[in-house]
Structures are given as structure tokens and as C-alpha cells.
Amino acid sequence: MNKYKPAIILGMLLLIFWEALARFINAMYILPSPSAIVLKIWQLKEPLFMVHLPATLLVTIMGIFIAVLLGVLLAILMSINDKIQNALYPLVIATQTIPITALAPLFVLWFGYGIWSKVVVTVLITFFPITISFYDGLRSTKREMEELLLTYGATKKQLFFKLKIPSALPSFFTALKMSIPLSLIGAAIGEWLGAQSGLGYFSKRMMTQLDGAGVFAPIVILSLLAIVLVFVVNIIENKVINWRNEI
């Protein structure tokens, strides 16, 4: 717990500064205070936590799951063959040059106001860091280790699963922790542009009512959710890559 003390202290100082600044400006529709946001969350806890949070969480989990499958598959294909890498790598990069806010309305037209339009936006945002990081991790295997295992008679399959995959796991988990906040942003963007539920949809609805605290309430929940999910992934990483602590 002691290692989180600096973050807790800094967070409390920022909240105090925010509260003081909001009270000084005294315009809640522009800059609501943290106390007003907490009060709004409490007042609207039932729709926020029982309706909109589960909707956003479902989109996020589905988006991350598909992004991991797609990213890992593309990374493995690119690591196997240089021609595949030369063909796919520019396309993977090109997907990140397309403004998501321009495509999201099209996804709503194509897939409707259901869950899949939001999932597609989330996947498009999150699969890139997973693909690139895992690909770089697969390529980071030391040549000497490969030659040593080949000398001992290891097959290409054994080389891949016993050496390359473990070597790429730290990069994979780093990318996953980067992708979680991005997936929440993607889900919120999709909900903002076209949805019937979700924290992004709720924030947009509060904006039309000029309710500053209501706009910030789902944003705070999204931030806390990102922290919790990254913390969970960090625990899983320490369990899976337990050999790193022994080096």
C-alpha cells in the first residue's frame, strides 16, 4: 500500500485544487466541483450503475477480447513471414490514421444502434497497440537463445511456444494495459455518437441539459473503471510472468 501513497497524496491535492477552482469560478455548468460530481453520482446511482455502466462494460470487454484475438493473430502472421509483414504492417498503421469520430456515424448506419457499432469502434482503437507491441515482442527473442535451443534439437513449434511466446508476454501485457483505457474511450465515443444506453450516451444526454456535474459523472466512473481494470491486468501479469521477479 505504501507504494501508492505518492499517487494518493497527489490525487488528493489535485482534487482540493479542483474544488477550490470550481468554487472560485462558481459556474457548475462549466466546471463542476468534485463534491458536486460525487453528489450527482449518488443521486443517479441507479441508472448509472445498473443500466449505463453494464452497457459500457459489455462493449469494452467484447472490444478488448476481439482486439486481442485480432492483434495476436496479425502479430504472429507478421512474425512468421517477411512478405506477410511487408503486406500487413502498412495496413495496420493506416487504420490508425482514420479519424474515429468520422467513421463512428458510418458504423451506426451499417450496424445500427445496437452493441456492434460500438464494439467495432472499440476494436479499431485498441487492436493497434496490441498488434505492434506483441509483434515487437516476438521479434525481440535473442538469436543466441534460438541457436541454443536448435542445437538441443528443438523444433520450430517448440521454439515458438517455449521461447518466443514467453519473451513476448511482457510486451503483450504492457499493450493490454495501454489498450484498456483506449477501449473505454472507444466505447464512450461509440455511445456518444449513437446509442440508447451507456456512460457515453448518458454524458451526452446530460450535456443537452447543461448539467455539468452530470456530464462529468460518467467520465469519473470511466476513469475509476480503467484504473480497476488495469490493476486487475497487472495482478494477472505478475502471476503469469512470475519468472521475471526471480531474475
From TrEMBL:
Pfam families tied to this protein: BPD_transp_1 (PF00528)
Record key words, sorted: Cell membrane, Membrane, Transmembrane, Transmembrane helix, Transport
Record-level GO BP terms: transmembrane transport
Residue ranges constituting the ABC transmembrane type-1 domain according to the UniProt record: 53-237
UniProt-annotated location(s): Cell membrane
Membrane protein topology class: Multi-pass membrane protein
Transmembrane segments: 49-76, 88-113, 119-138, 172-195, 215-236
One Gene Ontology cellular component: plasma membrane
UniProt main location, coarse: membrane
Annotated InterPro entries: MetI-like (IPR000515), MetI-like_sf (IPR035906)
Family in the record: Belongs to the binding-protein-dependent transport system permease family.
PANTHER family linked: ABC TRANSPORTER PERMEASE PROTEIN HI_0355-RELATED (PTHR30151:SF20), ALKANE SULFONATE ABC TRANSPORTER-RELATED, MEMBRANE SUBUNIT (PTHR30151)
Name the UniProt record assigns to this protein: Putative hydroxymethylpyrimidine transport system permease protein
